[in-house]
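Weekly sync notes, structure subgroup
Attendees: PM, AL, DS (notes)

Item 1: joint prediction request from the bench team. They want all two components modeled as one assembly rather than separately. Inputs as received:
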Amino acid sequence: MYSKLSTFPLLRLPKDVNTKVISNMDIIEFIDLSILSKRAKDLVRSSNRKCTDFSVALGQECEGLIEFPTHQSDFDFYSTNDEEDNFLKFDGLRIDGHQWRTKIVQNFTMKSWLNHLLCIFHCNQICLRIANSTADIELIRALLNWIKLDCLILEEGIGREYAEKILQHLPYTNVFINHVRIGHKEFSKINIQHMWSFHLEENQDVSLNDLLLNNSKILEIRKASLTPRALNRFLKLWTNNQTNPNLQWIIITSLVNIDLYDSKRVKNEVMDGIPHQIVTIQELKQSHALYNEFRDVPRTDGLMIHRKDGTKAAVHLNGFNWFQMIRLN
Amino acid sequence: MSVENAPVVDVDEAAIPVEKKMYYRFESNDKKEFRVSELAIQQSETLNRLVEAMGYTSEDVENKPAIAIENIDGKTLKLVFQWCEHHKGEAIPVDDGSVPKIVEIPEFDAKLMDIDNGLLFKLIWAADYLNIVQLLNVSCKKVANMAQGKTPAQLRRVYLLPSDEEDEAAKRAAQEAQDPRAREVEEEFEERKRQGGNSFF
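Output from the run, pasted for the record:
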């Protein structure tokens, strides 16, 4: 039997072989190795351990989740100095309960840890969840620096003013706003940004004008205060090329001012004066990949409508509380 | 089957082949000769291609010189062929690119690799050179297992990983070894700076 600390010249193995060695290590050993030197960091990067999602939540704590194809690891940042409340200066990292106390990382801050982890796991974007209003926006901007903000989630509990500020000052691609009311004026300002998707949850003061200003490809509004009549107006403007040309998919739930048991009347009101024909869900699935790719797409027959420029879309109405329109070409 | 009983025949020790079937003769760089069965050879992509290309018959094997494997010594090659004989006929795993790898080290392999790290290092080089996928998998796993329960500082010692400063120093030393004049120029430059000169030329 040989001593536990007998040595092995890892770097003298062929490059693809030492990559194979590193591929056999668990995430903690992998990070341990990566902090030893630039060369060690390059080595672990070359083993191509890619995460699929990287999310950070700023609330009472700074925590997050790294997702890999086969497992996930949770982490949190903390201050080794109890008096420190600027999260950018948090210097401790815990992953799956493991803490790094070595001198090698004594100068690491939350920002440098974040950059390091994103680098070794081949990720250049994060999902940021903000759950309270204590984090200074400039600090968040400094934290993100080169990191692409793929997804921004604003949680219940942050103030309206703070939410509006965040939406104006951070660049993002996909936004989820949960239970935070956004003012009309601010809604218009944020909507003119280029976004991939925009999701609003619960009782937003969304008007038809807001829908027309929105520039995202996917727009989802849960529990909106829109009437069937407003949706009818929206569809008419769409058929006349007077709405957001990027819009590919719109989902609206919980319409208001309707008879809950008269879905036929709702349909008639929404589609009033708009030429349409029924298209079965089988036909839609066969000819449009989107119907097979996404979990939330409708499973019911649609109503095909046409825009002046030849663009087609399918409208789906599910009873009284659910409206979707999907652009087909 | 134990490691000791694996059917690799060292010619010096046993002149008669163990089984009457197609086998090949190989010679290590320190002139040790081995007889290895055709089925065992299939574990090595490199050797398998080599013997296929040579098109040897049983008579050729006897009459022609052993196939020389010039960059592997006898001690290492013996381990390699023991492993191949033990695992002959087994499917060769295909790397699906997943990380982390899920590799189990069978008991036989664990015993075979209960060797000093110098020999383990040679075994890995040989497995890579001979393209023996599963032997490479288990031996890499064995090296990865050395990291278990270690602190970063211990990992540095176990895997002989230099710090950035040591890497820089080694790089400078290598450059200087290539060009001795470079050091002189650098020293001259430093001296002029100390004397307050702002131009080197």
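Discussion: Chain A touches chain B through 42 residues (CB under 8 Å).
Action: AL to compare against the crosslinking data before next sync.
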